[in-house]
Records
---
Amino acid sequence: MSYLDSKIPPVREHRHPETSLAHGSRWRGGHAAGACPIASRADRSFTQGSICPLLPALGIMLSLPDTVVLMHGSVGCGSCAAGNNVNVRGGLSSRGAPVDDVVWLSTALDEMNVINGGDARLREALVECDRVYRPKVILAVSGCLPGVIGDDIDAAAAAVRDEVKARILPVHCEGFKSRFMATAYDVVYHAVGRHLMPDPASVGPRDPRRVNVMNVGSMGLADERELARLAEALGLEANFFPVFADPDSFARAAEAALSISVCPTHDDYFLTHLEESYGVPHVIRHMPIGIANSGRWLRDLGDAVGRAAEAGKIAEKEEGLLRDALEPFLPAFRGRRAFVSAGEYRSLATASLLQELGFEVCGIRSFHFDSYAEVELEKLSRARECSGQGTAGRRAGGAGRGSAAQGGDGDGFVFNVANVQPFEEANLLRRLKPDVFLGHMHGNSTAARMGIPCQVIYNSGYGYLGYRGAYDLARRLHRKMANPGFYRRLGQFGKLPYRESWYGEDPFSRIRGGEEDGS
Amino acid sequence: MRSAYLERPRWSCALEGALAAAGSMPGVVPVLHAGPGCAGNFAWTANGASGLQVTGQCLGLSVPATNLQENEVVFGGTDRLREELLETARIMEGDTLFVLTGCLPEVIGDDARSLADELSTPERPVLFASVPGFSGDSYAGYGEVLKSIAADGVRRLRTKRDLANVWGVPPGLDPFWRGNLEGIRGLLALLGIRANLLFGPASDPKALRRAGAAAANIVVSGLYGAEAAGIFRDLHGIPSVPAPLPYGAAASERFLKAAGRAFGLPPSRMRRAIQTAGRAHYAALEPAVDLLNDMESQRHAAVIGDANHAPALSAFISEELGWVPELTVIVNDLDARGREALEGYWEATGTPRPANLVYASDRRSILEAARGVWPEAPQEGYRDPKRPAIVLGSSLDRALASAIGAGHLSVSYPVANRLVLTRGYTGYRGGLALTEDLVSACIGGR
Ligand code: SF4
């Protein structure tokens, strides 16, 4: 039975039990990831606020045109739409579409609803918002509250289905059910798969030119254009979804010749579904960030459509052009120490790019860790060995506890898995003193306030992917490092909320469980 | 009856408002006992709503939080909270912890208050506010934090006769809160009164303790902070003084009179202060009088904002600039009692009742109200078109502005398209800043 057959999608904890949120260790070159078990039971005795699956899920859902997002929960749950709205307006404007605010609604449950249940209110809201907005799709999204008071959003949706013109997609985002924001992707694709995809029997003929490319929330038009350009060079037409895709267009994915992933941990749920239910084969291996990774991605694509030789040639040519273009930036990068922090794949792939640009990567933080990322860690280690950076050897210490990370060249990099947790980051940065920090949106202020120049590596609208993305990131990084004035001044006077004594403790001392007692 | 949903609510939940307040108090470390994403949710909310202010000493994603999971939902979360509080005291800088409970622990019945009481010591007080999202909006959360402070955070000290607490400017929800508090402090200083501010850079870690020595609580809102001021009065005998949110010179005069009266100052003292400040104010405005007049800067305006901002802005443009407020929309979800309280407050503070007042927050209702002034059909013959027009509202009101062919300036929550740091519109200087912003918004093409 497919996951899609059940109303409620599995959380990452069940689907990928190896997934972890808490880990910190030194990581030396040449070290196989398999020797580094990271158990999902690992936890912390102190935590700061984090990101629940609802947030990235809203990032995707709010970008869909002709769609209403109906949050079922307390009024605050999903108020982040105010921030998503900024990104969606930017995305619409760059795509030449009329710019308008997203339609997001809240059932704003109150005390009475907590006592009596909120199902009736949800049903009423579904009928009413269908009448008022006449959308193609209503996403009925549950936050934590309906989950604990026992509301059934699927039943509510089913009950009013005849009265409502729009298609209703129940989306399960109860924050307390998963510690992994990656669960967000699964819950959205689960809803899409169950409600927006055609009956397999009715799917039209496959278009041999169409290749599905799943975009991620951060992918602005610049990134889409770059991947479309590469696909086009192979005679293929990229079909981007789900971000900014018309709800009616999802069905087109079933008629594609192939799907290729942009971020394996992001895409696997749906690509598997497309293959199993519609016979669309998929490639899920690399994130096209960095020179080698973009080449791998392109070659995989060529391979899958029987044009391997051509893809190889294109990759070679693109790589040559890119290397020439990067040349003027490299002296400023050589030997500088970089720290990178973002989602699992993005952080690791960006670290590879940084190595290619001549940086020494001294630390990597990723929001979670699962089996998809092991190969990326290996790539990084191999690259370090080839370039003579880092020493092959075994990682020191248990789960990194008792092995306070110190700076120092050739000492490998620190690898820290955390759903944000800036206190660990502050401690690490104080020790490692990187020359530059590359972080996720809303993940740069700790480093910035310590005086470290920061480059955002996840924010929609900027180029990150493919050859042009590599150039664009290098260009912006060069500009940033050429004038770090803002950060220098900030570091002189900025303040973080931690006690001075915290910096004397092991940065990973609050991690418990992990490799000793979990596996 | 409540409608079944709110469209693009212009606030978050009680937990958010409480965090924005507690997290803006120097020396106070908020600790969220809530779901795993609430802090991230609030950071992303602020991204699009608070004039680009997201982080703070203990705001954004650095706030300690228990990030409750299924396990705690089933077995209870107080053990996790106990551990979190002890660790917070070791890692985070600050002498006061402020536990804020969200939806999950309140539904599953965690007794966080008892735990807070148990762990509280004179050296490290642990305050507590129950602020689940279902209990109210961000404004309610701000109010709950003030109430906890009034009830548990403050001991009555010997009265300092020149000291005033100031309530009613909710951090974050008022994107101009820093500047607005600073402007109020400046006004009080004109009368020799010291403002004891609990929030933001103008505050200090001793402000919380000092609050018990105030001679009065000045409340510049008809709704927010009024209840807490009531507790202050009942528990500590500190009187509560309603005063207008002093946007600009005219409201500042009313403010000075109210504050001076409450502090028992002779009317001549207020008159002198008003004369001196007024002269300086108009001396500053004078260089622009030529152009303000000659370019017909007078506008017809729709003012949209919360119960604090909309009336204050509406009064300002009418009294100070001589503009015409054609429509005033208060976006808060207020029942009859709330509306009455507001009317009473305007009455008490001499705030002009906004012209053509409507309570609404969804796009359709606001547009409908605006169409009453600016009809869609082309105007024929001799009819006053009520133009040029401007919308003073939130970023969400840009669609309205373009629908009625008006200009626009974001001056109320959510403010997504302006950077706001020290800017505030209170006091005389604030009035000049507001004049600069409003007129600049009208002449961008000049
Ligand atoms: S889903 Fe839960 S954890 Fe996420 S924002 Fe809503 S209440 Fe907070």
---
Amino acid sequence: MEKTLDLKFNYTEKKDTRSGFGDGFLEAGRRNPNVVGLCADLIGSLKMGAFQKEFPERFFQTGIAEANMMGIAAGMTINGKIPFTGTFANFSTGRVYDQIRQSIAYSGKNVKICASHAGLTLGEDGATHQILEDVGMMKMLPHMTVINPCDYNQTKAATIAIAEYDGPVYLRFGRPSWPIFTDPAQKFEIGKAWKMIEGTDVTIFATGHLVWEAVVAEAILRSEGISAEVINIHTIKPLDEEAILDSVAKTGCAVSAEEHQYNGGLGDSVAQTLARNNPAPMEYVGVNDSFGESGTPTQLLDKYGLDAANIVAAAKKVLARK
Amino acid sequence: MEKQTIEQLEGTASQVRRDCLRMVHAVQSGHPGASLGCTEFFVALYFNQLNHDPNFKMEGKGEDLFFLSNGHISPVWYSVLSRSGYFSPEEMNTFRKLNSRLQGHPATEEGLPGIRIASGSLGQGMSVAIGAAQAKKIDGDDSTVFVLMGDGEQEEGQVWEAAMYAAHWKVDNLIATIDLNRQQIDGPTAEIMDLIDLRAKYESFGWEVIDTLQGNDMKSVVEGLEKAKSLSRKGKPVMNLLHTEMGFGVDFMVGTHKWHGIAPNDEQLADALGQLPETIGDF
Ligand SMILES: Cc1ncc(C[n+]2csc(CCOP(=O)(O)OP(=O)(O)O)c2C)c(N)n1
Ligand SMILES: [Mg+2]
């Protein structure tokens, strides 16, 4: 389908976003000697091996003990270290929520919680590992910044940017090989939404892997005479409310797209912004109150209604409600 | 179900290893290493030790119960469950595929017979097993509850909360086993997070501890479980330290963490299957 479409963004290469994290982490370590790493027996999966090799004295294997890892990280910030913790998204959030809440968020500690294998697209491991609630949990914590970049380049840029930002951050990325369609030289601005494609009929607010699906959906909609605006909300908190309100003031309706539950995700953040300022029809593309399952990423995005075709359908539905 | 002899159990184990490898190969994902390493244990349990009914009922009243805490070794569990009659071996063809009951990690959501709790996130299974064992005591049900954990999994704090609780509450109808293969994802446990002396740790927590030194020898595994049973119901929870080799049964997989979660390719599968006689019939 992608081949015959006139896409506004293209790709020649695919790579996993976790590799963007690994490469960004190494770069952050080179730029700042205070950057340290911790990992709970998933160094290979998190792509933290290059940093470990170059800075062995600044890297700590914690074993399979995520709660302890969060506490150690919080302690390390006290004399100015900038710890990056690495494990799967489920074990980075739900597993250790109270440790993050008390020792990191409430205590205002400069820990970067780096979470791979988020969402359905981790694939065959199934629902135990496919967390779809992490954005909700993390964005509810006061002081926490929540970032979900869309491709390798954006993840790398975001990783470098969070090292330079002072405060707790949740950085969410994933496992599958995914199109690289953003600029390798991009400057990542935390909290600043990126209008990728201008349009007038409907705004698609997308985050993470589904930004690519939104790019594909825009081309499909355009081929059917519908003009969609695509906004990349890489930072879910703090949310760029101005960008959201400006766009919807023009288009009059919105679709959110994310690899997360409806409850608590980007969609809810957008809906809250609209409801408080400028109520407008909105549709959600996400997982509707169910757990995931084993399957390939493509199969799962289709079955759970998260791919470009579903974004197109949501856009048409919301247009009819204008 | 009739108890299999050691010889029969060994034949079953060969088939179970084939099943594990063929499942993981077919989807090119899953965890063969510790599945192969724990094959004797699973086969001994389901075909010789457990008093269980393949006509599955969640409550399992009057039955021995088994819980798998290190859920990533689902292939070996799915194989013994199907081979002992919980569901058709053909269903192993669906392992890790869309719309399957055989999820990557064991789950109750799809209703697979034999599974009583989801696992996959490590460190949680022993708590559940203890709860189930205590529920049996409340009911005056004299059956035994078994749980298997990984050795790397011992690094999770919850395991030690559970260990303390089980001894405090004298949960002596519980037999826990640790797959002591000395490997985890990133490497040998001694390098990742040294467990030092698990026997001393559990003893100091108030457990009765035994070692099954040859965890890949069927006779030793059966004897170890018999011994564990004989030590149960004496006021202490029982820990069976099962010394295994990850990847046992396939020469190029044995003894390394490299096959923790990697699937064999076509050539490697053929090589591996050549080392494991088909005894019952492939699914
Ligand atoms: C809470 C949690 N953290 C991390 C993981 C990822 N993980 C899966 S298996 C594994 C290694 C487990 O080691 P061990 O218990 O020794 O099992 P083995 O590698 O021997 O099969 C890890 C870290 C997980 N499943 N759950
Ligand atoms: Mg192990």
